[in-house]
Amino acid sequence: MEIALHAPGLGYYSAGARKFGAAGDFITAPESGPLFARVLARQAAQVLRSGIVNIIELGAGSGRLARDLLAELAALDCLPQRYLILETSAELKARQRDLLEHELPRLASRVAWLDSLPASLSALVIGNEVLDAMPVHIIRTRADGIDELGVTATAAGFEWSARPAAGEVLEDARKLNPGAGYTTEIHLAAAAFVRTLASALSSGVALLIDYGFPAREYYHPQRSAGTLMCHYRHHAHADPLCLPGLQDITAHVDFSALAHVAADAGLDVLGYTNQAQFLINCGITDVLAAAPTEDAAAYAPLAAQAQRLTSPAEMGELFKVIAFGRSFAAPLIGFARGDKRHAL
Q1: CATH code linked to domain 2-134+189-216+249-343
Q2: pTM here?
């Protein structure tokens, strides 16, 4: 998964094909239009007004979230001193820079790119659909043990190959106790990333938005085939061994595991809820109400975006928002109602 997504020049995120939007393989919330960023800006503004002066975006994709978030923060008179983008893909970094320089030239000077997290940072950290693309380990249970699934190359192409699970993979798999014949994912890379983030965050808030579940839903008996999914030209399927380097490979996020890792690393879990509730708390209805309903050309696209972002049948329920923090006391407005930390 790491090689297929990130191998220099060949991996999905490092090669040149378009990934995001109607011309790519999938549409993220920022790609659906500016409404997501405009509402998220209200939460960002609260954090910035508390004295946290910088924003770090993890994996900025096409750059549209950065563009729309900065534009809305400017309208709210609450711009960060610096907007830093942590991006590992040189190809995406070039696209982001080009978009911001051409479409937001007055604010482009505030933006800089990082190759890794600073050793110490005070910032609002935003990650939208970043964790789901971190490589996972696949395990499959037997009546007499647990296997880890890997990939082998044959004359016919790539095939699955099993070996007895060992080390940290086996340790985490045993905690699940799902019964025989169960296939699922172990999220060691995402857990390691949260530990790294915790060690770097001296003060501020990390806001992570992705699709997934708390552990009791993630490892439900009815989810016995796991959550690994691939996306190619707006078609979803479950075969990561076809089209290597040309398709996205993702797994849903185990938010309970991330919360436990963050807490063990000394971060406060500041909130957890679904995307619809988060956006409602941040004022999505106020943004819609401010749009002139008599101007159908302006209002209809916003209404369509709101439907996509909040509908339980689309992104509203499956996508979750979790916040971690250090030295940040104020309750976050995005979790004012419907906070589900108790479910983690």
Answers
A1: 3.40.50.12710
A2: 0.94
Residue among 267, 269, 253 nearest 341 (CA):
269
What amino acid is encoded at 44 in this protein? A
Nearest residue to 188 (alpha-carbon basis) of 209, 207, 170, 208: 170
Percentage helix, strand, coil for the chain under 3-state DSSP, each rounded to 5: 35, 25, 35
Nearest residue to 322 (alpha-carbon basis) of 204, 176, 212, 189: 212
Cβ atoms of 126 and 89 within 8 Å: the answer is no
46: CB partners within 8 A, 6+ apart? 330, 332, 333
Residue found under tokens 């996306």 = 231
Q: For 72-84, write each residue's pLDDT tens digit.
A: 999 999 999 999 9
Q: Which pLDDT belongs to residue 16?
A: 60
Gap between the terminal Cα atoms of the chain: 27
**Quick one: tokens of 30?**
């920022």
Tell me the C-alpha distance between 111 and 95, whole Å: 13
CA 309, CA 283: separation in Å to the nearest integer?
13
Q: What pLDDT digit, counting tens, does each position of 295-340 carry?
A: 888 899 999 999 999 999 999 999 999 999 999 988 999 999 999 9
Question: Strand pairing of 201-213 and 157-164?
Answer: unpaired
CA distance 194 to 206: 10
118, 86 contact by CB (below 8 A): no
Centre a 10 Å sphere on the Cβ of residue 135 and count the other Cβ atoms it contains: 17
Q: Which residue has the tokens 């909040």?
A: 310
What are the residues facing 113 on neighbouring strands? 85
- The DSSP 8-state label assigned to residue 334 in this structure reads G
Could you tell me if residue 145 is left (phi over 0), alpha (psi between -120 and 50 degrees) or otherwise beta? Answer: left
Rounded distance between C-alpha atoms, residue 30 and residue 36, angstroms:
6
